[in-house]
Amino acid sequence: MTRTGPTTAAPEGAPPQSAEGADLPGAAASLELPPGCARLEALFLEKFGDPQVCGWSPRMRWGFRYFTPDEHYEAVVESLVGPTTRWIDVGCGRMLLPNNAKLAQRLSETASRLVGVDPDVTIQENPFVHERIQKGFDDFETDERFDLVTMRMVAEHVADPEQVCDVLAKVTAPGGRVVIYTVHKFAPVPLITSLVPFGARHAVKRFLWRTEEKDTFPTCFRMNTRGTLRRLFEARGMAEEGFTLLDDCRSLARFKPGQWSELVARKVLRAVGLPYPEVCLLGVYRKPAD
Fold this sequence. Notes:
Elements: E1 2-4, H1 37-48, H2 56-64, H3 69-80, E2 86-90, H4 101-110, E3 113-117, E4 131-133, E5 146-152, H5 161-171, E6 172-183, H6 188-195, H7 198-209, H8 226-234, E7 239-247, H9 256-271, E8 279-286
Helix pairs in contact: 1-3, 2-9
C-alpha cells in the first residue's frame, strides 16, 4: 500500500508506541504511519459496506487490497481526533473530506473545536467545520492554539512556504501536530500539470475525475518533497514524526479498464521490487511539548 522512508513511527502491524506529550489536552497517544491494515479496512467497510455488493471501483480496489492515498490520510486524521481535540483545517474549501462525508461528520461531532480557513468563497458551503474563516492562511492571525492542524491537498498551491509554515508553527499548540497530505513534486501527473496552461487544466480534470471548475486552483509545488517539508518544519523547531509515500492508482480510476491496469501495474512493479511512479506524500510534524 505504501512506501516509507526512515521514520519515528511504528512500522505497519507493530504495537503503537507512546508519544511525548500524550497527556496534553487534545493530544493523541500514538501515531501509526502508515496506518495499519485493520484501521484501513475498518474505515473502508464503514464507508462502502460489504465489498461484494458495493460499486465496481471500491470492489476492485478491495480485491487488490489497495487503499487510496485519501483513505490513508483519513485513517491518520481519524486516529488523531478525540473529544478534546482542537483542530484547524487549512484550505478545506467546501468539504472536510471530499470522498468520505460520513467520516467527516463523525470527526466533526467528535472534535471539541473544528475551524476551517480558506480564502475561497466555497468555504461558506462547508457543513462540517464549526467556524468558517474566509481568509488566506499566509496572513492568518489568531490567539488560539490547536492540537491538530491539517492541510489536505493544499501544499501544492502554496506560493510562499516560509510564510505559511511560520503561521502553521504559530497556531500549533505545544505537543500538537501538523499533517500535510499532498502530491509529490516529481510524480508524473504533477510534472505534466506544471507544463499545462492553467486554463486547460480543468478540462483534463473534468474528463478524468469529474471535478468542478470551482475546485481547480493554480499550483506551485514549492513544498512538495520530503526534504523541503522537513527543512521548513525543522527551521521552526518542529520534528518529522512520521512520513510515507502513498502509491496513487487513481489517474484512470474513472474507467474500469484504466483502474484495473493501474492496479495490475502496481502489483507487477512491487513484485519485482520497483516503485510505483505516481505517489502522494503524507507527513506529520510535531511541536515539542513545553
